[in-house]
Amino acid sequence: MPNDAGAAGAAGGDGPASARIDVWLWSVRQIKSRSAATAACRAGHVRINGEPAKPAQHVRIGDEVRYRVDGFDRHLIIKRILLKRVGVPVARTAYTDISAPRPSPMDAPAGIIRDRGAGRPTKKERRQLDALRGAPSEIDIEHILDGERR
């Protein structure tokens, strides 16, 4: 058979020595489509061993892949080369995920919402907003909400 490299990579044999980064990201289910993986590489969201990656750049076992998804970086170390898309349990054996955990929505500061048409905040309102965003020990919410001066 002329092209058994893909089947060997998916089945778990010795497998190929390298694969294109866009194919690998797609096959291990990190990106939904191969065209999206190619676009991510072209946009500069994918790095291999710290260097920006082109879609046709080859990766090998032991390479470090970083890519940006939804505003967060994923940091993967390649343990296995796959050329065909496989199921999630098999895909998870192809890499080690060493990325930092995403912050929970409760840790992120809440956005401050102003009424529509209220215009720009006045200097007094800006100071109150700065006080709300400051350190928790500095906030005196009762005075801010009552509009009293310190």
TrEMBL record:
Region ranges (Disordered): 98-135
Domain RNA-binding S4: 19-86
Swiss-Prot/TrEMBL keywords: RNA-binding
MF annotations from Gene Ontology: RNA binding
InterPro entries named among the record's database cross-references: S4_RNA-bd (IPR002942), S4_RNA-bd_sf (IPR036986)
Short name of any one Pfam family annotated for the protein: S4
Transmembrane segments: none
PROSITE patterns registered for this protein in UniProt: S4
Protein name, as recorded: S4 domain protein
Origin species: Actinomyces massiliensis F0489
Organismal lineage: Bacteria, Bacillati, Actinomycetota, Actinomycetes, Actinomycetales
